[in-house]
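ARCHIVE CARD
Drawer: 12
Card no.: 0347
Subject: one protein chain, sequence and derived structure
Cross-reference: see card 0346
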Amino acid sequence: MTREKIKPIAAVVAAAIIGILIWSAWATREPEEPKVTRILNNLKDDGGDNGSNGSAAGNKDRVKGDSPIAGSKKTKRIRFVIPKERFLPIGRLRIPEINLDVAFRDGVHEEILIEGPGHWPGTPLPGQPGNAVFSGHRTTYTHPFGDLNLLEPGDTVKTKLTGEKMVRFEVTKNTVVPEAEYADFVLEQPKRPKVRSITMFACHPKGYRTYRIVVRAKAVSGRSST
């Protein structure tokens, strides 16, 4: 076999070997975990003021699940993974009318809600354009939304993300919806793109899941610094 014929064959063999190595590396890689539509990497704990880190929730490495999210006539679902560090508080929720001042976390599954209110993955963060949704218990664990039914239009709700200024909202509506309808109802987004609102909901009446009590509030112009 001549040298001229050997060169093309060697090139083909080398390319095949490289291809096999690349395929092997790809096939044995760790599968990527699904992520929520928002990234919270820039949100950090502010030094413990928001709550305890040594909680039951922090004993697990991560929680996987799926959650409804508004976006069409029929509710869609997104998959999410919340690693251990995301059990840390990402902000505070204050409602003076019911003496509530509590940290909130990202997620609406039980490991989050045993610590306090949870922000629904896939909805905007409070203060951003759109409807930020919060869930909380009324009678169990820290029961932060125990008096949610007492809120009336005009009452003040304040939220503060770690490292950012407080945002003030005013309650616009307090309503009750059947359990079968609550997901689409609470996740509904404003028709106007610049509207900033929050929705808080919990089981109703206390101790039962027959209905959900839902409180909506709309951001007041500007941001409050206190």
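Annotation on reverse: Confidence is low (pLDDT under 50) at residues 22-60. The longest strand covers residues 167-178.
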